[in-house]
Amino acid sequence: MTYAERIIEQVKAKNAEQPEFIQAATEILGTLQPALDAHPEFEEAALLERIIEPERIIQFRVPWVDDSGKVQVNRGFRVEYNSAIGPYKGGLRLHPSVNLGILKFLGFEQVFKNSLTGLAIGGGKGGADFDPKGKSEMEVMRFCQAFMNELYRHIGATIDVPAGDIGVGGREVGFLFGQYKRLTKSYEGVLTGKNLLFGGSLARTEATGYGAVYFAQSMLEDRKESLQGKTCVVSGAGNVATYCCEKLQQVGAKPVTVSDSRGMIHDPDGIRLDVLKQVKEVERASLSRYAELVPSAKYTPVGDYPQGRNAVWSVSCFAAFPCATQNELNLADAEVLLANGCKCVAEGANMPSTLDAVHAFLKAGIAYGPAKAANAGGVATSQLEMAQNASMQSWDFETVDGKLKQIMTNIYKNAAATAAEFGQPGNLVMGANIAGFRKVADAMLAQGIC
I want to staple 160 with a disulfide (CB 3.0 to 4.6 A). Which of 15, 88, 209, 424 is the partner? Predict the structure, then answer.
């Protein structure tokens, strides 16, 4: 049994109740053995045993009062995973599904994603099992303030810098930042994704979606292909999906789908961004509302999806952009995509493809951009926001977007070169994992046993 295999078995034994974390650990550690063989000092220093364990896990209760005056209690978390190359950095997720296993998977992935950006940021993740859907503005504010009443003790501009994730957009970041400032009397870049009025960065909202498209372009350029004139399918309807669609349109592609937790839209004429933003950002409504406003669009509720599958991936396309949530694309979905001629998959969400689906994409030899590489644009631009805050400057949109595009290009080149170095050209899963791991591992070695 190899070193990596031994640690995977230990992870399974110690974390049996955390399937998402086991999945992420298996996917990453399962590709590292070539690097471990080349660097026996990693095993001698127990690097995998150390890197697999979070440096710190904080769990706390979040009591708040709803509009009817009833006390509600949620469970809050912050997983500070690894700070070898910089302060902990990673989003906060507000969703009923949030638990420690999901946040450990997200935090572990974040360590290597952040390393790939080339920027000085470690990895972390947090959130709560609070559902902002159906809550009033005041309820969301009271929850965010109650959440920050505990979180503020553990974060800071050079310690841990949270951002948004599912359920946490500009509104929630604003409430969190206001309470942090109130509690600490400190005006600092402790959160990213802030409003432009108080330290936010232009292009941060667009960054993850734009970055996924930039990464897809880099993959396709090496294959003498492009997105120009191509039909694309996108899942999700939040910031990542919306701005993925926007950038696809800007580069001449045609995104024809979006989805939410209740169903999907297929608009063969191309997604109308103005309508999507109205429905999701202003009305905060179901995508069925989109179909009411756009005659060419067909709405399919989740209950009518093919059994065990996501209907988004049944639409014929040249490129697919999973931008919703983890494990939204399984082996059956992957097989349908490939049968319908899909040549490129760039992941905008975190671990949206199951391991079987990933193996199918790799076996087919298509251009496949794994999440930790393809969706790193959001955290990269968060770090650019941190840099602007630290220097008390504000860069224009073109400057930030230009830096984002260069970062995504560099991530692709690094992952591709590393894959070729270890004898698997084109395998960006291996390339991204080893490239991200080596930087963190070398830093940990240099800092001693800590």
Answer: 88
> Hey, what are 359's tokens?
């193996």
8 phi/psi in degrees, rounded to 5: -60, -45
Q: Read out DSSP for 438-449?
A: HHHHHHHHHT--
Rounded to two decimals, the pTM is: 0.93
User: How does pLDDT run across 290-335, given as a tens digit for each residue?
Assistant: 999 999 999 999 999 999 999 999 999 999 999 999 999 999 999 9
- Which tens digits make up the pLDDT trace of 207-241? 999 999 999 999 999 999 999 999 999 999 999 99
> What is d(CA 419, CA 434) in angstroms, rounded to the nearest whole number?
8
Asked if 131 and 167 count as a contact pair (C-beta separation under 8 A), the reply is yes
Among 125, 247, 343, 372, which one carries the catalytic annotation? 125
- Residue 203 has which token pair? 């292009």
DSSP 3-state assignment of 168? coil
Q: Provide the pLDDT for residue 368.
A: 98
Written as one letter, the residue type at 196 is L
Measured CA to CA in angstroms, residue 300 lies from 106, 231, 240, 269, 270 at distances of 30, 19, 21, 17, 16
* Residue 383 pLDDT: 93
The arrangement of strands across the sheet holding 263-266 comes to 257-260, 263-266, 298-301
pLDDT tens-digit map of 382-402? 999 999 999 999 999 999 999
Q: Which DSSP category does 376 fall into?
A: T
CA distances to 107, 161, 197 from 240, rounded to whole Å, are 19, 20, 22
Q: For the chain, give the mean pLDDT.
A: 97
For residues 341-376, one letter each, b for 16 or more C-beta atoms within 10 angstroms of the residue's C-beta and e for the rest, the string is: ebbbbbbbbbbbbbbebbebbbeeebbbbbbbbbbb
